[in-house]
């Protein structure tokens, strides 16, 4: 979720002040008192409903509500699979910390405990995983990066517990997001203070030894990055094969940079698009030919239905807008991730939407599944689903809802 100037937002929103002292803008936060009734029961998707939740082809496996995690608001989510046991864990960002939930037994999901925020509470927290460690950043003032050894979760006998960090990194204060290239063992922290050494762009951190992070430079030539993806490139542009490529969603433009040489990162190109409002977040197709982007505020500013932008990155020096897809509602899009030929979109009040992108080359995109966690509205409001993690081998999909907590869903048999 971006921090949006109030002037951009229509009058049906009710605002609450952010407690992030370093924030350059103020985020509207919808204080919706009609959030869904909490229930932890599993429900198959039958006749368009899974219990109280509208659905299409996605069953409700289980729930953990915010009250159970002693939190007032949810945000980001990521997952970890323990290679020793095969157990699956959800790692969910909360306003006051980071929660760890064992979801490996869908009939007995266990909230194991929380890593409290490093400084103060914040509505923004982001998590990624590398080598059995969770790396956590937040918009909270002075927060830095927390590092938590996830193998500690193997032996929790009396949950919930309050955890401490195994290590921390203070080379920045507040940050909006963290990206990790697992191929190289580098973290890229973005959306930091706009006045820092990298203009709110990317801080490079060597995390190959997870508990001993080392500063490795940064990149700020294109200004503030709200979100990013970094890959070891193996796409169609042979000029960059094997290079470490950074794709930044930089508020009003998508930028592409070569960050292989940490001491000398270089700009490759940039691309914009019509009716731009806030260039928020995107993800490569698995063949790295297409980049799928969400603009977080265009539904508000222009009255669009949910718009997903599709860029052709065949030539990284000359990226072009290929197509756009309009969803069935006016809900705002947030984080989206690709798995195979599917795009998993967190769509705020419209829940999770799964798009078939197998026909992307022919400009043929279609919605195949959805699960709506926020039953009272599908309008353009900052409530409902914040993010989704679809990468568990079991097929479990974990979903973070701002108002209601953790959902675990799965495709119907």
What does it look like?
With about 425 residues, this protein is mainly β. It has one helix at about 300, and strands spanning about 50, 55, 60-65, 75-80, 90-95, 95-100, 110-115, 125-130, 135-140, 145-150, 160, 165-170, 175-180, 185-190, 200-205, 215-220, 225-230, 245-250, 255-260, 265-270, 280-285, 290-295, 305-310, 320-325, 335-340, 340-345, 350-360, 365-370, 385-390, 395-400, 405-410. A six-stranded antiparallel beta sheet has the order 1-2-28-27-26-25, with no helix packed on it. The two termini are about 35 Å apart. Residues about 5-40 have low confidence and may be disordered.
Question: Could you outline the blueprint of secondary structure elements for this entry?
Answer:
Layout: E1 49-50, E2 53-56, E3 58-65, E4 74-81, E5 88-94, E6 97-102, E7 110-116, E8 125-130, E9 133-138, E10 145-149, E11 161-162, E12 167-169, E13 177-181, E14 186-190, E15 202-206, E16 214-219, E17 227-232, E18 244-249, E19 254-258, E20 266-271, E21 279-284, E22 290-295, H1 298-302, E23 307-312, E24 320-326, E25 336-339, E26 342-346, E27 352-359, E28 364-371, E29 385-389, E30 397-401, E31 405-411
Parallel strand pairs: 7-11
Antiparallel strand pairs: 1-2, 2-28, 3-31, 4-5, 5-6, 6-7, 8-9, 9-10, 10-12, 13-14, 14-15, 15-16, 17-18, 18-19, 19-20, 21-22, 22-23, 23-24, 25-26, 26-27, 27-28, 29-30, 30-31
Question: Which terms would index this structure?
Answer:
6-stranded antiparallel sheet, mainly beta, 5-stranded mixed sheet, 1 helix, 413 residues
